[in-house]
Specification:
The chain has ten helices and five strands. It has a five-stranded antiparallel beta sheet. It has 503 residues and is mainly alpha-helical.
């Protein structure tokens, strides 16, 4: 069954039906546009929410060392990535459905207009042929009536006894001429009738069916394209479901990895001073009289006892280069961290020195490549830097040795508080708070694993491969990008949704 065969006389119905189909495509495009606006608004609100609750600043970063704080930050990061996927859905729908369907709609409108114009033109041609047929038919009827009248008049004159021979002959000639003209009109009418019937047959059995079948094909293609658009509406969201699932799994794993015992141990390690508890207070017997001051008592005056549970804040002591202002445990940690940093710098400087020496050797063997003396300032500067770093390393190693070796004597001093022999300036620092004591060091904020390969072609970005382990140098600030460091030293920005936090 097709439109050309079964709907040959329903041109108006076909016109309305095809227009209704185009209206549906236009309506669907508008629906998808509004859906993208909903997705974009939702993603924007999610990003704002994530940014609002994300912690900033040194104290918050210190808190993020605890698993329950860090897990909440991971949840916010995953939520931010989730928002990015909602934005991606909106972008794909706009470009893949709205833009493409709008372009297709313009093409199909033009095609429909062309087919309907062809049908109208064919109808006008047939109507023009019918008018010409009617005209030849009327002329034939008129001429035949005149011929019949002339024949009757000739017969009448011929039977008239008073008519002359000339009158009879003239009447016969006039009748013959009229009859001849009528015969020509009859032949024209017959030819025009045959032509019209042929055109009408072509119109109803060939021309119009072909046009209507083309309209049917156009409408079916329109329906198929619209069906694909319906499927795209779902498929575009399905494509990002794996990443969305990973975001949701990341949120779940962030809750699972919380370790309350580890958080308690970390809190102890952060605030543990290493000092011994104060000893018992001795009974002072005033009945025995005041003992004369000796050299020992003058060197070790009685200590003014500090508060046992000082909740009030105290001013922090000034920072010392050897970290002697810190409690024993904290001092050892800071000294060891400083030694590690200096060791890294020293190794880097030594590598640079070796490279310069090799380059100098190459220049000496191949003078055309460069002047060896031009490297002397850099070599000298690098040597001075190595000497400085070695001196600092020795200094901090000495202080660490003193801190480790002095624990035992420090404990003895603390134990002697029972006898009042500790120095007076030691106790005020026992319960001193140590907030914000660490310098701002450029250290990784955590680790992450690349979920997908990314080609960093624009300025400031780097390329990563799927499964690669990366160091996080700067978290996502809400714009969908984060700064990472690769194992081989490359640093730059990548999309936050392309990685999964591991620590």
């Amino acid at each position: 069954m097709d439109w050309g065969t079964d709907l040959w006389d329903q041109c108006d119905g076909i016109d309305k039906h095809t227009q209704s189909g185009l209206d549906l495509v236009e309506r669907y495009i508008k629906f998808v546009k509004e859906r993208t606006e909903v997705e974009q608004s939702y993603a924007k609100q999610l990003r704002s929410l994530s940014k609002k609750y994300a912690k900033r600043g040194s104290k918050e970063e210190q808190d993020c060392k605890f698993s329950n704080h860090a897990s909440f930050q991971e949840i916010l990061n995953e939520l931010n990535d989730y928002a990015g996927q909602r934005e991606l859905i909106a972008e794909n729908m706009m470009t893949g459905i709205c833009v493409e369907l709008t372009k297709y709609l313009q093409d199909i409108k033009q095609e429909r207009k062309t087919h309907l114009s062809d049908a109208k033109k064919a109808q006008q041609n047939l109507e023009g042929s019918f008018k010409q047929l009617e005209s030849t038919k009327k002329r034939f009827a008129k001429e035949w009536a005149e011929a019949d009248k002339a024949t009757q008049q000739a017969e009448k004159i011929e039977n008239d006894l008073n008519a002359t021979r000339l009158d009879v002959e003239k009447a016969k000639q006039h009748s013959h001429a009229r009859t001849h003209t009528a015969e020509e009109c009859r032949n024209d009418y017959a030819a025009q009738l045959q032509k019209y019937n042929k055109e009408q047959n072509f119109f109803y059995y060939s021309e119009i069916p072909q046009i209507f079948n083309k309209l049917q094909d156009m409408d079916e293609r329109r329906i198929r394209r619209l069906a694909e658009g319906y499927c795209q509406f779902s498929d575009m969201e399905k494509r990002v479901l794996p990443i969305i699932s990973k975001c949701l799994e990341g949120i779940s794993s962030a809750g699972v990895k919380i370790n309350e015992n580890q958080d308690s141990i970390l809190f102890i390690e952060q605030l543990k001073s290493g000092f011994e508890r104060p000893g018992d207070v001795e009974f002072e017997d005033y009945t025995q009289g005041i003992k004369p001051a000796t050299s020992d008592s003058s060197l070790n005056p009685p200590k003014v006892r500090a508060k046992l549970w000082p909740f009030n804040k105290k001013h922090k002591p000034p920072a010392a280069e050897d970290f002697s202002h810190l409690p024993p445990e904290q001092r050892k940690k800071r000294l060891q961290a400083k030694i590690d940093d200096i060791t890294k710098e020293l190794q880097k400087a030594q590598d640079q020195s070796e490279a310069l020496e090799k380059m100098k050797g190459v220049y000496e063997q191949n003078p055309q490549m460069g002047d060896p003396s031009s490297l002397e300032p850099q070599i000298s500067e690098t040597a001075q830097n190595i000497g400085r770093l070695r001196g600092e390393l020795t200094k901090y190693e000495t202080w660490l040795s003193e801190a480790v070796g002095g624990e035992e004597s420090s404990n003895n001093i603390n134990n002697n508080t029972q006898h009042g022999v500790v120095t007076a300036d030691q106790s005020p620092h026992i319960y001193t708070e140590f907030d914000d004591e660490f310098d701002d060091l450029e250290a990784p904020l955590g680790q992450c694993t690349a979920l997908y390969t990314f080609e960093g072609n624009s300025e400031g970005t780097i390329s990563i491969t799927e499964g690669e382990l990366l160091s996080i140098m700067e978290e996502d600030k809400g714009d969908g990008w984060m700064r990472v460091l690769r194992a081989r030293g490359e640093e730059g920005y990548i999309p936050s949704s392309y990685v999964k936090h591991t620590s």
